[in-house]
Amino acid sequence: MTDDGDDHEWQPPERETFSHDPIAHAEARAGMTVGQLAEEYGQAGIGAADLHEAVDIYAEMLDEDVTNFFGLAGAMVPTGMRRIVADLIRDGHIDALVTTGANLTHDAIEAIGGKHHHGQVHDAEKTEREHDEQLRDEEVDRIYNVYLPQEHFALFEGHLREEVFPVLAEEGAVSIQRLTERLGRANAEVNEQEDVEEGPGIAAAAAEHDVPIYCPAIQDSVLGLQAWMYGQTSDFSLDALADMDTITDQAFEADEAGAMVVGGGVPKNFVLQTMLVAPDAYDYAVQLTMDQPSTGGLSGATLDEARSWGKLEKAARNASVYADATITLPLVVAAARERAAE
Hints:
Blueprint: E1 2-3, E2 6-7, H1 34-41, H2 46-61, E3 66-72, H3 77-90, E4 96-99, H4 101-111, E5 117-118, H5 128-137, E6 140-143, E7 146-149, H6 151-169, E8 173-175, H7 176-193, H8 202-208, E9 213-214, H9 222-231, E10 237-239, H10 243-253, E11 256-262, H11 265-273, E12 282-289, H12 303-308, E13 312-322, H13 325-340
Parallel strand pairs: 3-4, 3-11, 4-9, 8-10, 11-12, 12-13
Antiparallel strand pairs: 1-2, 5-7, 6-7
C-alpha cells in the first residue's frame, strides 16, 4: 500500500476487544472420555465454547471449600436425571438443593416402586389432541415423550398418608424442609422394605447426608395438593417462611459459594436471591436453560444480569448454556467430576 507515495507494510488497527485465540477444530474420536470431549468443545465456538466454560467453572465449584447451592427445575426426575443429582448429594457436591414439588413427587414415585416409561408425542395416525384424549381414557399422563400411569399417583398418596404426614402432624407447623427430610427418610424405608429395584433417590440421599431440600413453591405440585388435603382433617401444616432461616444461614457461613441452576422458575430465583441478604455473593455460577434472555423473564436471564442485582460477585466466574438440560447436565457433571478427580 502507499501513503503520499511512500511504501509501508500494512498494520492492523488496534483491537481492544478482539480475541487473539483462534478457533480450532474439535476432534471426536472413538474411546474419548467425556472430559476429553468437553476439552475439544473448548476449541470451537458458540454453544460448544459455552459448555466448555461451564465445565471449567463447575469443576472449580466441586472443591470442598465451596458451598454449593443447586437449583433443579423442570421435568428432570421423570426424564431420567434423578440418579445424577442423588449421586452428587452422596458425594458431597451439593450442600443445599432447591427444587420443585413435581420433582420430589416423581422422585418418591420411583423410590416406592413406580416407574416412568418411554412414550411418543402422538400416534402417527392421530393428531396430538386425539392421542392425548386416548391417553386420558387409558389413565396415562404424558410429559412430552415420557408416560406415567395414574395409579402411581394413588400409590404416592398412600405413601404420604401412611409414612410421611402422620409423623409431621404430631410436630405442629413444620418447615417445608422438614417435610422434604421426612419424605426422604420414608422413601428410603419403603424402598428397602419393598426391595425396590430402583434406588431410593434424591430426597433419600439428602436425608441420609443431612443436605437440606428447599421447595419454595410446593403448593404447585401433587405433593403440595396432598399436603393441603391432609391438613384439612388433621393438625398438619407447613410454615412457608421457616426455610428462610436455614438457607440464609448457609449463605452467611459460606467462605466461597457456587450456584448450579438447572432450568429457571422458582428454584433459580430462590437460589440466587439468597445472596441478597448475605454479606457476600456467589463466586461461581452455572446455568443450564433453554429460555432466552430477550423476553425479560427470570428463567432465561443471564447470570451477568444477576450480577447487577448483587447476587454474583463482580469477579464471579459464570457461564450460561442455552440447550436442553437433559443433554447438558450429564455432560457438564461427568466432565467436571472427571477433572475434579484428577
